[in-house]
Design brief:
Length: about 500
Amino acid sequence: MSDAGVLDLVLFLPLLGVGLLLLFPRDNDELTRRVTLAVTVVQFALAAWLYARYDAANPGLQFETRVPWIAAWGVYYQIGLDGYNLLLVMLTAFLGPLVVAGAFTAITKDVKLFYAMVLLIQFAMMGTFLAQDLFLFYVFWETMLIPMFLLIGIWGGERRIYATIKFVLYTAFGSILMLAAVIYLVWSLQTSTGVISFAFADLVKTRLPLDVQEWLLAAFALSFAIKVPMVPLHTWLPDAHVEAPTAGSVILAGVMLKMGTYGFMKLGFPLFPDATHVFTPVLMTLAVVSIVYGACLALVQDDIKKIIAYSSISHLGYVMLGLLSLDLVGIQGAVIQMVSHGLVAGGLFLMVGMIYERCHTRELAAYGGIAKLLPVYSAFFMVLTLASVGLPTTSGFTGEFLVLLGAFKTAWVQYRLGYGLPLLLAVVAVTGVVLGALYMLRFALGFLFGAAKAPHQPLFDLGLREKSILGLIVVAVFALGLFPAEPMHKTELAAKAFRQLAGTSRLPEIKP
């Protein structure tokens, strides 16, 4: 099988897994769990093999498959790996088996349907990252809504219907506007060149007037900002996280939120560079507001799931700040921060699920003295807490440090030119690091080291399955923190291309 065929298999393996589950008896839950885990493990192994074969010196699309789908509309099934999506594809594949294994004991109702939805959303998320055709991208983008709707709506908490409807309304509203912008963009390409195409490589060459770019970027940005989410479009996230089952929370925090930042990086800013220049002060301000406001909200929460949910808003704000800096270091820091947040927040949500299975409450006040009762659990929790804070040697430090370095480099140049807002915003963004330490250490202090609460039932420390899940995440966190050079080398050319595309004007040429 060719490398392109392996990438096709990486994409479609979860869908094949869904078909396989349909053949099993409904009451054979153990077989369903094991087969689903095997499918996701194989997917990760294949993705890792392609990652190892990825040529960092090749700036083009690799392992590409491009075949006609709706030829009359210029729509192709086109997927491939590049520096934009490489690490995010690996993150998605890595978290897949951990989500499946983490739900072994938590999900006992409609097990086959649950794992079918997990595989379906794995397929849709992988397709969103791999798609190189805007029509295909939009199909995968919308497909993600269906399994997440069911994951929250069927296996969620008491207010799951409210959270589900809110999630769907927010994301669907943004998606409709993006669809309108996509149609107009393709029509503009056809009008100016006579060619109808949805391929990213063709659309990025389109020259549009500034006012048109502004309207189209606003439509794309609204859809992506909801998914990130950026303040003030964030209110769906805490409800979705609190009511979702643990697997849903891990998928949301670990991968789905990255769809928004990836959308800005792959589509929004490169397609409309002149509008990006106009919108940068507003978007950068919102990114810094998200950093500080998300941290402040996390600081006052008493629900342990909400603490991590609001921290996600803050951490993704750093990603946006790094992208908007248009500095090579800041852009690469944003990519590292995306992966780091997926690992750390995903791990923390898994740990919340583990303690919830034992104590059946998420109220911070109900816990205390966990360090004495569950020492192994507490050790893993502290490692991920310190990674979230940005302790050196962890991935959290690498991502945030590079983002802030890139932001300050750009801000200082602009300050010397007499424009002080970026420098002010970069300084304010640093306070997010301090606030992050405050809310996470407050969380750990009350949760692990507070006054011991008498448990309602005997508590058992982590089993082998749970240790394996968290051990893999911790290894990945330290690997990315201690050895970031190799993944940064693989994404360097894409970061340079992004800076070039998003920083170069493509206004229509004015003929004399």
